[in-house]
Amino acid sequence: MSDPLEGFLAALALQDTGARTSEDIFTGPSQWMPQGRVFGGQVLAQSLVAAQRTIPDDRVVHSMHGYFLRPGDVNLPITFSVDRIHDGRSFSTRRTQAYQNGQPILSMIASFQDEDPGLDHQVDMPDDLPDPESLPAAAESLAGVDHPVASFWANERPFEMRHVPSPLYFSVEGEHVAHQAVWLKAIGPLPDDPNLHRAALAYASDYSILEPILRRHGVPWSRPGIRVASLDHAMWWHRFGRVDEWILYTQESPTAVGGRGLSLGRLYSRDGVLLASVAQEGMVRVPDGSPR
Questions:
Q1: Average pLDDT of the chain, as a whole number
Q2: Catalytic positions, please?
Q3: Which residue from 95, 150, 177, 254 has the highest number of Cβ atoms inside 10 Å of its Cβ?
């Protein structure tokens, strides 16, 4: 079994093809996933890395909006084309298209800004949640489970995740509410490159953002016939934080209807600094239209 963190870093180490037409072209590998489809967080992070390669170091990402167009194939590399839409005095805008077999699988637009002083406030982090050390790791929660995906969830992801109140892998414990929290961090140290940590935050933000929809209806990930897929993903970076230190991801779903659900999230450093905000709409289809 390959090291999950090494595979994660390799996926984000895009290769510049040297092609220069009206766009900058990069290529990157796909990480293996048990169901054969590229993880959405991977292609989001790679698309951001591709855009970052065309931006001066002193201008950092503050927002990203992406649409997932087609499922990606983990057996194929991905080509990223970056369009340098705009470079102003304080802001730059880039559009990244991700392709496999000549077909777009993701379209993303991102905005970058010089770091400027200004007004500063934030919504406080909840102070009534357990510390990550008091919660079971995924490997503990899944110990002894005989399921084709359980080993991957437990041992092969580059991020550790600890749910509050409990994970949704095979059951939904407690009250069926449309909110939850997840402590997460990389399973090992990451390089100091701040842009890598921003891209890693985008990667990890896609793991569990739709789970409040499932929790509200008592539907675990293992429900036979369930179909969940990200449709679009928006993210705003507010302040810098390291992703190889514990981050609290608070999540809630204000609505689900028509086979789609919306989830909102906030990512905090352990000492309470609001690092980023997330919004995602996803397709969520459960057999018979409702839980058992």
A1: 93
A2: 206, 230, 280
A3: 150
